[in-house]
Amino acid sequence: MMLLTLALVLLPMLAGIALLVARPHAQAKSIALLTSVIGLGLAVALYAGYDATNGPVIAFQHDWAPAIGLRMVFGFDGISLLMVLLTAIVFPFIIGAGWKKPLSEPALVNGLILLTQSALFGVFLAQNAFLFYVFYELSLVPVFFLLLRWGGEGRRAITMKFFIYTVLGGLTLLFGLVYSYLQLPAPRSADFAALQNVVIAPDVQRWLFWVLFLGFAIKMPMFPLHSWQPDTYTMAPIQGTMILGGVMLKMGIYGVVRFVLPIVPAGVAHWRDVVIVLSLIGCLYAAWIAFRQNDLKRLVAWSSLSHVGLMCAALFAANTAGITGALYQTLAHAILVVALLYLVGGLQERLGTTQLAAMGGLKARMPRLAALFLLVMIGSVALPLTQGCVGEWLMFNGLFEVSPWWTFLGVISIILGAVYMLFAYQRSMLGEAHKNTDLVDADGIDHWILVPLIAVTFILGVYPQPVLDLLHAPVEQLLTLIN
Known about the structure:
The protein is mainly alpha-helical. Helices cover 75% and strands 3% of the residues. It has 21 helices and 2 strands. It has helices at residues 2-22, 28-48, 78-96, 106-125, 129-138, 140-150, 155-182, 192-195, 202-219, 229-235, 238-248, 250-263, 265-291, 296-315, 320-351, 362-365, 367-380, 387-402, 404-429, 444-462, 465-482, and strands spanning 57-65, 70-76. Strands 1-2 form a two-stranded antiparallel sheet. Strand 1 and strand 2 (70-76) form a beta hairpin.
């Protein structure tokens, strides 16, 4: 377990550094793809050797700066392992999404992508709060350069806005972690196991809740802290948007589970209704804005924001169904976003635009791509037998235990989601034919990217038990800390 865990963090880090230093542009994509596939194999091996009945696994620990609570502790439980698997699954497809693109300096692009993956593995495998924070902030650095160097129009201003939001959120999080650490009796430890048992007065928890939560709420992002997201997602290169929407926003969900819920349970109980209401407002608001979009990439960005709002609401239902559903949905959402954005990138390559007004009748000229789009869309609207249906059913059950009205609002957002996705498909694939008659249909690479993602959506929609088994024990343990 120790070697597998360390290899997950070190392999993409070393490969990424090698690409940045040596810059083998001709071989960069192959090296990055091979590295990510090996990472997926390591994550699967970690999953195969994990026994949920034995509780959390500490795979490696070493004193780094114990005087300030900083220890290098890596390990995982079922929740961490789900996030590791999520990251390992989507990154080969994110790298593959750039396979056909004539990128300038591909070694730099893929090197930054691998460094991001390494930092994300570190976030999900860290078992010390300050080590978590180090990787949490490190994940921002390569993405910042990806956006700044390869982003679209207005990238400087948009990237700086994204950077300022996330840094400010990170600083509030750091303050909250340090304050919580100082409440522990000497000798102090910032390991998760110690922080989860910290005793903080209920009145202090009420303000400390927002100090901890804001950093994660910005990362998700949650309404009304979302203003950086649509422009950043639209401006970013497709691979950058996949990283942001597919994995990085899940750090916010994960952070709430790891720190907010167990450290300030009285604060969670006090502010729960406020957070759920804000989340559902954001969910409905984003769904409505998505419906009004004429740009397919912005539609996906607003759709992602709507889905995250529902996940956050279910998470703060603070019961088994709600937390399990939100965590289950992180995987479903990651698969969906990567597939949708790959389709958006494919249409942009063929048409030179993502404007829905410039599309129409594409099914007649690209029947295979239209069929793949249809299957992805089925997953997006969470029809039965898809992975999204399982997650949403659990989330609605969790919200219903708290208030049937909140479930009703969540269902409305799902109905709006079905409407805008069907509308987007109708405007792009059906209707009047596009004037260009020489459009290239889906090729072998498109199938290699999309078919496995679609297969995961349906396999876990039909048989979700492996994921549910992974989450059962840690979610129940978390609930004992909350209640």
